[in-house]
Amino acid sequence: NFYDPMDCSLPGSSVCGISQAKILEHQVFRINVRNEDEISKLNQLMNSDNLKLDLWKSPSTLGHPADVLVPSFSLREVKSFLEDHGLEYSVTVEDLQTVLDSEDRKLQRNVRQELSSNCFNYGAYHTLEAIHKEMDFIVKSYPRLVSAVKIGHSFENRLMYVLKFSTGKGSRRPAIWLNAGLHAREWIAPATAIWIARKIACDYGRDLVITSILKKMDIFLLPVANPDGYVYTHTHNRLWRKTRSVNPGSTCIGTDPNRNWNSHFGGAGTSRDPCSDMYHGPHPHSEVEVKLVADFIAHHGDFKCFIDLHSYSQLVMYPYGYMTMRAGDADELDIVAQNAANAMASLSGTQYRVGSVGSTLYASSGNSVDWAYDNGIKYAFTFELRDTGFYAFTLPADQIIPTAQETWLGLKTIMEHVQNKI
What we know:
Blueprint: E1 27-31, H1 36-46, E2 54-57, E3 66-70, H2 75-84, E4 89-93, H3 96-117, H4 128-141, E5 146-153, E6 159-165, E7 175-180, H5 188-203, H6 208-216, E8 218-222, H7 227-235, H8 288-300, E9 303-311, E10 315-318, H9 330-348, E11 353-356, H10 357-360, H11 368-374, E12 379-385, H12 400-421
Parallel strand pairs: 7-8, 7-9, 9-12, 10-11
Antiparallel strand pairs: 1-3, 1-4, 2-3, 5-6, 6-8, 10-12
Subcellular location: Secreted
Subunit structure: Monomer. May form a complex with proelastase 2.
Protein name: Carboxypeptidase A1
């Protein structure tokens, strides 16, 4: 999808002949829920297997709406159900295919420009191959500060490697892990992560905060934590969320990599159904992509901070997700998250809500930040980046750099706090 599938002369033409799944006339509904009875009715609707609905955003608390992708063949039945049960709704996307086609045209225009200029455009979305190429270029450009650390291969045998920013000359020092792209369709997260990689490299020695942090700590950044799923969103299904592992006994592919961590595995907010977008997998760390990160962090042994970038909803959250009970360090984590949100708002006024995952978003057992916190990484945060639902997973490319710039201010606020506490 990154290249014109009709033009096999371009590099990467192995995708030729593979067309994106068409989702003609699919719509996105925003459904308001005002009380427990309406949440129950919404759950009844979502559990109708024949409708094939995709819950994009759960109503985390009363007063916050749900976003639901409704296939064209279910539109009449869903509208009828909502009206019969008195549920308020609006159609936020009239024809999702039109949105995706527009995004695709911009992707293809960007690749033509990059091929002619040989310059990476940070204000555009990219394939995994292009992101890896830019990671290599950053290493080559800043060899004293940045190195590539190979941590293994994905289920489909794609190389997984992280950028390590360090002034420690090989010594093992306290570290920060920045994770992005666990959910394949959340393209703004890898786009933000690769911008941040370049920002860290460029600002070292110029920006007092990042220079001070890197004198004391290392930063490890994984821009695409689910490479197989990410590639699949470019070649087959733009809205794919999971990994691409095979599930024995099922024709359904993949596991939700943010329900697969060994922390309250299989609890609230997960599914035992391999066909579900929230399938937790057969056992903790069954997904090689999750296991590689968990093993690397555990083997290193001195990570002080873990931050996972997702989209969408504009949230800064901390543990726990498996329950609404407060974590032991919730008071401090809330202050840090609020400071990060304030820093992000200072740039262009973008408002981020703050709270624990379970109380702010929805129950999600087996998630990455709960695992990090349970494994001694006190400063564990999840960011849900732009927007709040107007564009959802198809945030226009012209919002990449503004999103990355404000996110960087939030990350820097958290990292500076961590540095001051060690």
